Amino acid sequence: MHNTYSPRQNASGAEDALSSPGRAGTAGQAETGEAAGPDPCTAQISALSQIGKQSVRDSSLIDFSLRHTEMSAFPYSTWKKIMREVMVNANSEMFSHSEPGGDLTLRATIAHYLHLSRGVRCNPGQVIVGAGNDYLLMLLRHILGEGRKVAMEDPSYQRAAQIFSSFGYRICPVDMDDDGMLPTSVAESGADLVYAMPAHQFPMGCIMPVGRRAALLGWAAENPDRYIIEDDYDSEFRYRGKPIPALQSLDHAGRVIYIGTFSKAIAPAIRISYMILPPELLERYHEKCWFFSSTVSRIDQRILNEFMKNGHFERHLNRMRSIYRARHDELLARLRPLQDQFRILGTGTGLHLVLEARPEAAKAFRKSMAEGFTGSCLISAQIELEMTRRAAACGVAVYAMSDYLLPGHDPASRRPPALLLGFGALDEESIREGVRRLSDALNIRGLPTEEDMREK
Fold this sequence. Notes:
The chain is built from 15 helices and 15 strands. It is of the alpha/beta class and 456 residues long. The chain has a 7-stranded mixed beta sheet with strand order 2-10-9-8-7-3-4. It has a 4-stranded antiparallel beta sheet with strand order 11-12-15-14. Helix 3 (76-88) crosses helix 10 (298-309), helix 4 (104-118) packs parallel to helix 10 (298-309) and helix 13 crosses helix 14 (428-441).
């Protein structure tokens, strides 16, 4: 099972799609010193994965992608106008090197925006601008040093796990429930670093409550060298209730490293992310990373600064929230008739929903698949891949939760099968047709008709 991966969808940072190496094939061999022999379960799931790859390439599919966002509503004319104005007013300073941490005017604008929108407390000097989250995590390696142990929820954002592993950091998968990672599991893991997404955990979609956030901060405060990396990748898209303050806003001991990106809120091609360092780590940054040049063009930074400072960013966010809220509500309404068979998770925020099979539904899937699979290896990952295969055969692409499990801590035997459905790039009509096709693929009955929906 550990050798099976289907195509990755890099949803958290909205950057390039991940490659598809075996999840723990090489790692497991390195630990045991033995080559993995042929395994019927692995062969069967690998075959399904290949079918899924071919299916996703079919442009006729309705693709519930976790990676794509709606770009037709982007204010291209406004962006072009700002570009022209920036270039007209450009001087020699514009074409010189900026500070390693980024243009100070943009950093001040970001600090002001984060304080108003997320309650983040920082000064512009604590803001580090970089070309994508990958670069910022690379800086953190130099700041935090070698040999770290990183606690991560399982399942979690695979790209971050791969980057930490490339640093030689040890990944410590921790258990989670519907409220996110369990502080007791973090304490038992032996980690000195936590990577968490408290505002909207990817891929489960849960929101960490205040009490658990306080417990996590308490864990970090027990040791002067413990830190929490807060990835706040899509906190702008919340459709119910008041905005939830960032974990960083509750931190009074300087234990939280806050990371955000404009890839989801504006466009993936912007490739501008930011990191807020606590004072102690800011000193280490100046000591150890002063020689790194800024990785973002000063012209691009100035354009983004003008876009934010003049209110265009806020107006764009409001427009996108309205679009995504309508799509979120449409998908939720179409999925609600399936609640006898599936739990719907991650509602009210973000750009995807989770469809988790209830025990009876999972049992039915196992029974229907038993004839085509050998042995007793019908665990959740296998069922998910079969579900995605059936969906692709009916012209709809959905994604398996097992794609986001961490190496060495596969809870597949005790977690229910689940599918991920992104709605960022699909209009309401496509969502309706996509759920209808998914229902046919999984032999689900009881979906409402168009007339039923109109009456509601």
